[in-house]
Amino acid sequence: MDLISGIETFEARVPLPAPLTVGSAKITHRTYSVVRITTTDGLVGVGYCYSRGLPISTIIQNSMAPVAQGKTAESPAEIRKLVLGFNWQSAEHGTVTAAASAIDVALYDIVAKRKNQSIARYLGSSVSEIPIYSVIGYHYGPNNDDLISEVKSALDRGIKSFKMVMGADTPERDYERVKIVREIVGPKALLALDAFRTLGNLENAIRRVSMISEFDIAFVEDPFLESEGLLAIALRDATGVPVSFGESLASAKMAEQVLHYNQTDILRVDALVIGGVDQFLAATAAAHRHGKTYATHIHTEVHSQLAAATPNLYPGGLEYLDPKYEIDLFHHLLYEPIRIVNGNAVLSQEPGFGIHWDWDAIRKFSDTK
């Protein structure tokens, strides 16, 4: 039996080239908790999560690694149960499940490497490419030149679907920006909006979403917190615009409840928050049973491998942030980010998740030397 013999953690804090406004927050760094697991058979698996400045590496090292050390590396689900059971008081809170997700992804990396298969192949998929949709419009700026440039650049790469940021300026500015994008991409392109939970009350949300509903919005993401599903239902009923949320849900059971009460039209799922591979697949399967699609939350290298094994990915494809805009800085921890060819993410065929980690960069950006 292959056992876990070592667990290392790194907290990589990568500076943004300029402060970024996300909803009402100003962000100066992107932070990533990286976990590297070694087994008695000499296999190495790597996982990570988006830590958002929280001490997730510390949680892994102090509260989870001692529980997992010496246990079998052949059953990620068993390890997830152990580490969450040990931390039962916080077991369904996003910070703790994000930590468990990083461990789970690392263990699945090992499981697939043991079979000499990519994760997608290990999960039974033969898919080699998946469409992506480009996230645009983070920087409002004094005019719309940058937004127009982002859209045209994505179209030149063969990307046909988009999601743009809203809510960081006036409703009139959002209307102008959405109108410009719709005119460029044409009437058939899927165009979604991300509100970053900034719409506040229902009255304001209805006013802002109604203003832009004429542009055939595929969905408005995160108009409210996940706990405010009743407001999401009311917003959908009042505007006719589909709603999407779920990236902060901490288990497949939470996703099942959201779906049961019809609080979302497109379920958002983040494998690096919800608990890892099994929980991601369980949540997407639940959405499928309810006749709904799901959308991923960045992490294209990981989500491409998992989405390949599901039948109900959002028609626009995987969420994708172009590294050249320096919004998500994950690419700074890699030798090479995922390849995009003709609007599709090209899945790695290498064993495991096929991520080429730059350990010198991880150490440079990390507090752990």
How would you characterize this protein structure?
With 369 residues, this protein is an alpha/beta fold. It folds into 2 domains: 4-116 and 359-365, Enolase-like, N-terminal domain (Enolase-like, domain 1); 121-346, TIM Barrel, CATH 3.20.20.120. Helix content is 38%, strand content 22%. It is built from 13 helices and 13 strands. Strands 4, 5, 6, 7, 8, 9, 10, 11, 12 and 13 form a 10-stranded mixed sheet that branches. The protein has a 3-stranded antiparallel sheet with strand order 1-2-3. Strand 1 (4-22) and strand 2 (25-39) form a beta hairpin. The longest helix has 21 residues, at 94-114. It is globular and about 60 Å long. The protein starts with a strand and ends with a helix.
CATH topology of the largest domain: the name is: TIM Barrel
Class of secondary structure makeup = alpha/beta
Oligomer: single chain
- What low-confidence regions span 5 or more consecutive residues with pLDDT below 50? none
The percent range for strand residues is 15-25%
Helix content: 25-40%
> Considering the protein shown, what is the CATH homologous superfamily of the largest domain?
Enolase-like C-terminal domain
Question: Helix segment count?
Answer: 13
